[in-house]
Design brief:
218 residues, alpha/beta, TIM Barrel, 8-stranded parallel β-sheet
């Protein structure tokens, strides 16, 4: 099943609770939460207090994307705050399989994110610990960037690798996804779609329903 994961990085933080309720009522399944540390990526976003706060107000699946250096240091805290999925960057982990095992041992799903120039080959020996692969279609750190076209080729490659592994692994894409290009991205192999600006700009409910209409056809 295809799933929509609105990224709260693009939300209006003055109205965050209201907007989370709106995306949930409109049919989104996940809430994508980008945690940035100012080291692995150049921006700083938000952390544990925000997640703990909003966890009390919504039943959406919390898809927590740790864009941080040495993410293994924070796994327990984010699980305790309410994460349902924790995705770490292959580029940020010294011991990737250990980090994924730890996430799963805490009873939630584990994902690995790949920057645009990172080969999917880095995942070859961790498929047993993976629930999701996040293919970055922009260089992480800022919202509102344009989709990198080469991502389509990479998605095709990731899809083939997942199929050859024989495992049930979701393929998520994040960065520059709009109503105009999402169909192409789904056809390339993605089944979890992250979108920020295209969801939270203007009429949020209509945007979510428009995405869900496309996702539901695949």
């Amino acid at each position: 099943m295809n799933k929509l994961a609105p990224s709260i990085l693009a939300a209006d933080f003055f109205k965050l609770g209201e907007q989370i309720t709106e995306v949930e009522n409109a049919g989104a399944e996940y809430l994508h939460i980008d945690v940035m540390d100012g080291s692995f990526v150049p921006s700083i976003s938000f952390g544990l207090p925000l997640i703990t706060s909003i966890r009390k107000k919504t039943g959406l699946t919390f898809d927590v994307h740790l864009m941080v250096t040495e993410p293994e240091r924070f796994v327990d805290q984010f699980v305790d705050a309410g994460a349902d999925i924790i995705t770490v960057h292959a580029e940020a982990c010294t011991h990737l399989n250990r980090t994924l095992m730890h996430i799963r041992e805490r009873g939630i799903k584990a994902g690995v994110a790949l920057n645009p120039a990172t080969s999917p080959d880095v995942l070859r020996y961790v498929y047993d610990y993976l629930d999701m692969i996040l293919v970055m279609s922009v260089n992480p750190g800022f919202g509102g960037q344009k989709f990198i076209p080469e991502t389509i080729t990479k998605l095709n490659d990731v899809k083939k690798l997942v199929e050859s592994s024989g495992r049930d692994i979701d393929i998520e894409v994040d960065g520059g996804i709009t109503l105009e290009n999402v169909d192409m991205i789904l056809k390339a192999g993605a089944n979890v779609i992250v979108s920020g600006s295209s969801v939270f700009k203007d009429d949020i409910s209509s945007n979510v329903k428009a995405f869900r209409s496309i996702l539901g056809k695949k």
